[in-house]
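Intended use. Records like the one below are meant for learning the mapping from a protein sequence to its folded structure. Do not use them to infer anything beyond what is encoded.
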Amino acid sequence: MRTVVLAGGTGGAKLAAGFQSLLEPGELTVIANTADDDEFWGLLVSPDLDATIYRLAGVFDDATGYGQKGDTFNTLDALGRLGEPTWFRIGDRDLATHVVRADMLNSGSRLTETALELCRRFGLATRVLPMTDDKVRTRFVTEHGTVSFQNYFVRERLRPPLSAIEIAGADSAVPSPEVTAALVDADLVVIGPSNPLISIGPILAVIKRGLHRERTVAVTPIVAGVALKGPTVEMMRALGHEPSPVEVARGYTSIAGTFVLDSRDAGAAAEIEALGYRVVVCDTVMAGGGGGLAKAILEAL
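Structure written out for the chain above:
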């Protein structure tokens, strides 16, 4: 079954790894968020794209939540001794990925081409595609001004109160030919359990016209009132949204026909069905990896 997963770097990427374990080689394509990309020392860092590749290749560092397992930080330490700010932690192995990407971009390659080449070098049959080759960036409007994604998340640790989220460049960005083809060919499109505001939202802003509601499934990122990873609940509250599966489902009504709800929230199934969804209720907590959830979705459909 040709499957496309829309993913940020955590929940969506983990679910994608589950699908990869079940599908035939080459049947899975992941479309990753690139709105939290940023540049450090002249290198484009694409955290969600890289985290997805690392996870699918089995080298993602779950202990730190970023980068590759067993990484060292010798280059970063040397930069610090030279007086460079080192609040954004880039390991040596991770740095190699950024160097390869920068070299290809400087030689005229598109971001998509760099991602496909990195997939090949990490031994993946799965294709991981950026949502667009155009520049799209998330900006957080706070009491202290508007700041970039990495500054807000990493440097400021989400401390300034949030008043709005802007996705700069999304209005003019277009999907790459590879993304468009993947969506046309897909038997199933899965909106992963990533943050709907800052991980899935930017992807949908670029590609939503290519989605078919009857073959698109959305997975809840909220279970029993909490997000298993990241500040999804806090951000939804800050922007005036109820942090619940029902509220997430409301945001996907025009693009998804099936909603996957965690069994702990089964009481909300009728309300979500009233929005026009077919509801699948199962255990969405991927404690042992994403294979169990991916299998439940495939079996339900």
